[in-house]
Amino acid sequence: MRTTSNPAFRNLPNSAGGYANFDYGQGSQPGQTQAAPPQATRPMTIDDVVTKTGITLGLAVITAALTYTVGGAAVALAMPAAIVGLVLALVITFKKKVSPALVIAYSAVEGVFLGGISWMFASMFNPGLIMQAIVGTLGVFAAMLVVYKTGAIRVTPKLTKWIIGAVAGVAVMMLVNLVASFFVEGGVGLREPSPLGIGFSLLCIGIAAFSFLLDFDAADKAIRAGVDAKFAWYVAFGLMVTLVWLYLEILRLLSYFQND
Predict the structure, then answer these.
(1) Does residue 13 carry a pLDDT above 70?
(2) Which residue spans traverse the membrane (predicted)?
(3) Is the pLDDT of residue 7 over 70?
(4) Residue 199: CB partners within 8 Å, gap ≥ 6?
(5) Most exposed among 17, 81, 102, 189, judged by the fewest C-beta atoms under 10 Å?
(6) Which residues contact 211 (CB under 8 A, 6 or more apart)?
(7) Is residue 226 part of a domain?
(8) Around Cβ 209, how many Cβ atoms within 10 Å?
């Protein structure tokens, strides 16, 4: 399986062994046959991916909506939810065993975080901003799915390295901006309603969109390799991470144009 910029997909079994052992039956030497690899309880299918992704997204939407309705208190819940979500994401990423409960918990907590952030943006700017960001996020997701399925952009090793490097690059830039903001108001200007801020948000949106191609490719490879159906939870988690990032970037970008 190709490398992906989304760390969640790195937990999927790869061609080195396990469920995705592509070397099965070839033998280490001429005339020899390897023992059959461990068999999955049930191979993962696209239906498993769609179902698990639907569950995680649906739960996030429900908790986000409930949090949004509590008004100003939603903002107070956003930061704790963000911290808990980060911890859960790290545990899910580095945990060797699939844990549906952790993925579900992450989705619920992220919903609380998104609900709080959304209420804050709605109160500061325009409530209609939220629906615009949701539509934009779903639109980008659908567009990249079509791009992937039609093969308009092929996921090559070169493209994969470029996207991974771009994700790492923007992460470093965000960290630098955050540290700088402790000393100078606005940091280096990456998150300000300025040409630089708008350009950076567009860059992040573009990278997040292309990250979907790697996510789809990793999921597709896992399905073809016949990995255990339970790994669909990892796929759902990985897509959730990218969707959350994309939504936040679109929401921030739209907010830049509200005071014009």
Answers:
(1) no
(2) 49-68, 74-94, 101-122, 128-150, 162-184, 196-219, 231-248
(3) no
(4) none
(5) 17
(6) 4, 5, 6, 163, 167, 242
(7) yes
(8) 17
